[in-house]
């Protein structure tokens, strides 16, 4: 019996620095046997140190990730293209080779203000919120 091919998922946010990077890492770590996760940005910059740190606290290493442009994936077939911020949803071009397009808006961690500890707490909350959504959306259906 042949093993089913992994479904391909592309997570998109504006800068590919936080939300989409966390989503890619979380899906790969929790459902990597069933899904091949990637991430990109409409205006990529760099992966934020705070995202790397909070993912490391969850034993998920995204330190080797780099911010990528959605242009790198234009000709790739995806089962799911997921925008994780409203700006990306509004500015992201249509992916004609995507089977399904999903949207889930997560708060922009660059909008978090406060002390260093308060900002890190907000990043942890964001990580946990993305993880719960991934489990609900891509987890085993009962």
Automatic annotation (TrEMBL):
Keywords: Arsenical resistance. Residues 7-140 form the Phosphotyrosine protein phosphatase I domain. The keyword Protein transport does not apply. The keyword Aminoacyl-tRNA synthetase does not apply. InterPro entries: Ptyr_pPase, Ptyr_pPase_sf. One of its GO terms (biological process) is response to arsenic-containing substance. This is Arsenate reductase ArsC. It comes from candidate division TA06 bacterium.
